[in-house]
Amino acid sequence: MNERNLIEFINEKPSSNELYDLKFSDRVNRFYIERYTNNLKLFFKNIKNVIFFLNLIILKKKIKSLSNQYFIKKFLKDTGFSDFNLSRLIQLKELIIKKKPKKILELGSGVSTVFMSYLINDLKLNCKIYSYDNDNDYINKIIKNSSKDILNNIIFKVHELKLFKFNNRRFIKYNNDKYIENIDILYIDGPVLYKFKNYENIKYTKCGDIIEIFKNVTDLPKTIVLDKKYDLHPTMKNYKKYKSRFNRITRTIIYEKI
After folding, report:
1. Within 10 A of 131 (CB to CB), how many other CB atoms are there?
2. Between the N and C ends of the chain, which has fewer C-beta atoms within 10 Å?
3. What is the per-residue burial (b if ≥16 Cβ within 10 Å, else e) of 11-45?
4. How far is it, in rounded angstroms, from Cα 165 to Cα 227?
């Protein structure tokens, strides 16, 4: 991917569809911040939130133990590990326990990759994680600092990035010609253009692999998780084969195949 072409792509004037997507995303973010983050009393009125918060404390201790075993401190620091990361790991844990997947496709490798593999071993599941990323150094860091029993469940795939447009929107995807079939859980957390995060119009470029998956995969994923990718929802809701639910704690959207 030519960097000059990428910068030109990023700096294009946003379309009306892109402006709508961003407005929708900002509205959802603002709702969560105003309603829950800034109002803890309201947050803890809901018993589900209380249970979730207690699970967060328990998992935090468990992750510390796991991290000492499989990661070096620098790696954890590089991942930007936080309580929100932990809350999304709880959600992944609940999904994996409930769905008992055989195939997980993860777009964007990281702590979640290792944690899901740990759960697969813990629950004695026959499951493979196909994890895509564009940063070979980052993948090598995960491999270097993970144990063999964790790596046995993971198939890493490193791809260049590809730009494209769909429905008057800008997308970036992993340059992959063929996606796996029979996906039980699709977890979307990438690709992300960290190198270009200071460009104003970067916010209009969305993760596009989901478009290609819907076009080219025969058997659509059973469950899809968007990790803070609210701006993809206006595109996703066009696919009538899914029902969606927003999680106010983890700030994710989960789509279940109807």
Report:
1. 26
2. C
3. eeebeebbeebbeebeebeeebeeebeeeeeebee
4. 21
Residue 70 has pLDDT above 80, yes or no: no
pLDDT digits (tens, 9 = 90+) for 73-98: 444 555 444 444 566 777 788 899 99
Pair of tokens at residue 38? 């800034």
Residue 142: how many other CB atoms lie within 10 Å: 23
Three-state secondary-structure class, residue 34: helix
The string of pLDDT tens digits covering residues 189-209 is 889 776 777 777 888 889 999
User: Could you give all domains of the chain from N- to C-terminal order, each with its CATH number?
Assistant: 3-257 (3.40.50.150)
Q: Which of 250, 154, 254, 164 is nearest to 209 (CA)?
A: 164
Q: Facing residues of 187 across strands?
A: 106, 225
| Count of CB atoms situated within 10 Å of the CB of 106 | 25
Q: Are 234 and 20 in contact (CB under 8 A)?
A: yes
Radius of gyration of the chain (CA): 18
Side chain identity, residue 44? F
- In single-letter form, the type of residue at position 59 comes to L
Residue 167 contacts residue 235 (beta carbons within 8 Å):
yes
Backbone φ and ψ of 48, nearest 5° = -65, -40
> For residue range 204-255, what is the model confidence (pLDDT) as tens digits?
889 999 999 988 888 999 999 998 888 898 888 777 789 988 876 677 889 9
For 42-160, strand residue ranges (E) read 103-107, 128-133, 154-158
